[in-house]
Amino acid sequence: MNADFSKPYDPKATESMIYQQWLDSGYFNPDNLKIKNPKIQNYVVYMPLPNVTGTLHMGHALDNTGSDILVRYYRMKGFRTLWLPGTDHAGIATQYKVEKELRKEGASRFELGREKFIERVWKWKEEYGGIIIDQLKKLGASADWSRLRFTMDPDYTKDVLSAFVHYYEKGLIYRGERTVNWCPRCGTSLSELELEHQEEKGSLWYIKYPLIDTKHEIPNTKYIIVATTRPETMLGDTAVAVNPNDKRYAKFIGKTIRLPLTNREIPIVADLKIDPGFGTGAVKVTPAHDILDFEIGGRHKLASIQVIDERGKMNANAGSYAGMKTEEARKAIVERLASEGLLEKEESYVHNITICYRCGHVIEPIPSMQWFLQMDKLAANALKTVQSGKVDIQPENFQKIYFDWLENIRDWTISRQLWWGHQLPVWFCKNQTGSSNSQFLISNKNLSAEDFVVSVEKPATCPICKNCDMIKSPDVLDTWFSSALWPFAGLSESDRKNYYPGNFVSNARDILNLWDARMIFSGLEFMGKPPFQNVFVHGTILTKDGKRMSKSLGTGIDPLKYIDQYGADATRFAVIWQANGQDIHWDEAAVMAGRKFCNKIWNASRFVLERSGNSKFDLPLQTETQNSLTPQTEADKKILAKLAEVKKQTERYIETFEFAKALQNLYDFFWHDFCDIYLEESKGQIADEKTGSSTQAILRNALVESLKMLHPFMPFVTEAVYQNLDERSNQFLMTTEW
RNA sequence: GCACCCUUAGCUUAGUGGUAAAGCGUUACAUUGACAUUGUAAAGACCGUAGGUUCGAUCCCUACAGGGUGCACCA
Predict the structure, then answer these.
(1) Spatial distance from the CA of A581 to the C1' of B67 (Å)
(2) How many Å does it take to go from CA A7 to C1' B37?
(3) Whole-model pTM?
(4) A12 beta carbon < 7 A from strand B?
(5) What's A11-149+482-505+526-577's CATH class?
(6) Residue-wise pLDDT tens digits, A443-500
């Protein structure tokens, strides 16, 4: 491109043109890099998969600028550098989005039916799923788009299903009925990492549970009082539990209670999980509607009575309350208890309610047939890999969060009752099960492994009855099950040989366990090696006053606004300038500083070009030329020494992911040491015959070296300048040797 | 509740066992300069509060307060 240096730097006119040149060059693809060193080393970065529903936000800008800095640096260093991009089908998020669209049209997915609905989601994906990729390109991301993958591409899907089969055949996947976290709005189970908590003012009701004491062993006690925030679930109570060490209740253990409203008789059991200090120290146990209670129920062989259905309404077991919403039932039950004199008191109480991370609806634990991945062994491997340092998580304090999760891991609920996603490779026999209704099949507790087969492809003939048309499980896999496979499922067979394992992944802390941990154990399980050496957890970008950026709250800031207005380089500058490891209180002033810096680079380059008599650059600068630079003056010596020092510092900072420090250091050097001091000094030196030509050489050298070092951070302006330094050159700064 | 992190100039943040830097903002002066986005200089911080360790602490320790995050959820 031909630049007009007489005007200020104009990112708008420059960026799209430069980006197109990069794309045309093919150098984002490492297979096209001219690699001289026979002992080539890889540098592979995995892009945190953006959801197809997503549009670029500040978090992406931070992730991807950091990754791009590394990728551009290592590419210039001569590594075979691959940045692997992809998009995630994001099961629940995408389904929710399309459902919302349908609701606006007055329709629902149930009216459409599964097949039509999925078609609709694909259409939606084709239309909007590429938006975020285009936005990443605007940011300057030098990912290898020729390798772009979607988690529901045919090949990827095959790997996902094969992984399921692998785990199943290894005995790590099992089907069972458990009380799981259930979102009544989305109509699906969720894993514990997909939950959020919200503080809510509620009540704690103290309810009298009448004691059955026919033998009159415990005089003066007619009731045990339990405290609960959810009286409506008492209809499903199957025990009252106390702590075995709680002296107040020792004599009650093993006795029986008559459950109010139902007159069902339930036992009093002892369990160490009960906190004697909370409420009255006696707890109602509802295995069907509380996960902890489900575990207590398991230990004491208690029945599980479901009283709330998957839509969050009271079911037939709730007797006269059947059909009511839980809140209605709660109110009615409290009134009834009060009228019967069984309500001891009501206290106001602030507690946390659990909500769905996608739609925000209150989570209802309910018993349900699900598929689980046994986690203990997988978690132990993932733990060991980080403990032994094979994978390094930075900043270090996040290792603790990683360890905590893996050390206290529960089995992973991997099935979801959604329509958008990878359907489980599980095939039910119609004849054996006696049904062709798939909904019936998933909820049927009586099915055993005799009733289905697990296989990637549909068996041509049913291996169970030999003549039925098998039914595929309607469940889909947790989105994170497929994204966990990204470091290898994102690569073709041959790429796996060349590019696995990779090196680096960078993301926000909220997906450390959701994604990073799962990539680590998946990589170990399927490839025998961890997928990368470095996990870098960057800070979260908050508003200036420290609030979470959120679209729904209207507190989000769109990085594209900055890219359009001030350019991608200024935006990247601002993001990295502020990214020191802590959370960032976003200050727009940094974007202005970035824009000014672009212009400074632009103008300093113009100066050097003009004072060098234009087109005197012989790019790329030869090493011999650089070595023969002979300082004549104190200023010469100083700038050359400083340049060498800054280069070393920059390398160190980039290699340790201290991008903010690297950038600030470079900024300081370029603006102050180079422009304010040396450039001013050079004016006199050039005029002097004795120092003229050496000064010009030093200017050229310092400029080119600066452009190289700045390129990973601000790729557009540096590339634009570089290409204008030598008219004869068709070199890319992007692939110039560091 | 447990654990971890943060609290430094008007704002956003660096940083160090020997009283502190940057960007933006403010003030003065200079400059048509490679720079409509410049330079030089100045003002501006008893480095959250209270103790302790130390010859000496903003930096280490303890407690507290405020903000945040992770985990557990207590029913």
Answers:
(1) 17
(2) 11
(3) 0.90
(4) no
(5) alpha beta
(6) 666 677 778 899 999 998 888 888 888 888 889 999 999 999 999 999 999 999 999 9
E-assigned strands of A500-645? 504-508, 534-538, 541-542, 584-585
Determine the average pLDDT of the residues in A431-442.
66
What span, in angstroms and rounded, lies between the C-alpha atoms of A580 and A335?
Answer: 56
Please check whether residue A703 is in contact with residue A604, taking contact to mean a CB–CB distance below 8 angstroms.
yes
pLDDT beyond 90 at A84: yes
Say whether the CB atom of A230 is under 7 angstroms from strand B: yes
Residue nearest to nucleotide B70 (CA to C1'): A401
Least confident span in A31-35, A199-203, A212-216, A349-353: A212-216
Burial class (CB in 10 A: 0-12, 13-18, 19+), A362: middle
**A587-735: same fold as A162-178+369-479?**
no
Amino acid residing at A509: R
Q: Is there contact between A380 and strand B, defined as CB under 7 Å from any strand atom?
A: no
On whether the CB atoms of residues A715 and A700 are closer than 8 A, the answer is: no
- Determine the 3-state secondary structure of A112 from DSSP: helix
Domain at A587-735: CATH code: 1.10.730.10
Residue A477 carries which DSSP code? Answer: E
- Under 8 Å CB-to-CB from A295, ≥6 apart: which residues? A273
Which chain B positions come under 7 Å from a protein C-beta? 3-6, 11-15, 22-24, 34-40, 67-75
Q: Where are the domains of chain A?
A: 11-149+482-505+526-577, 162-178+369-479, 188-356, 587-735
Name the nearest CA neighbour of A494 among A67, A155, A24. A155
DSSP states of A404-418:
HHHHT---EE-EE--
Name the CATH superfamily for A162-178+369-479.
HUPs (3.40.50.620)
> How much is the pLDDT for A555?
76
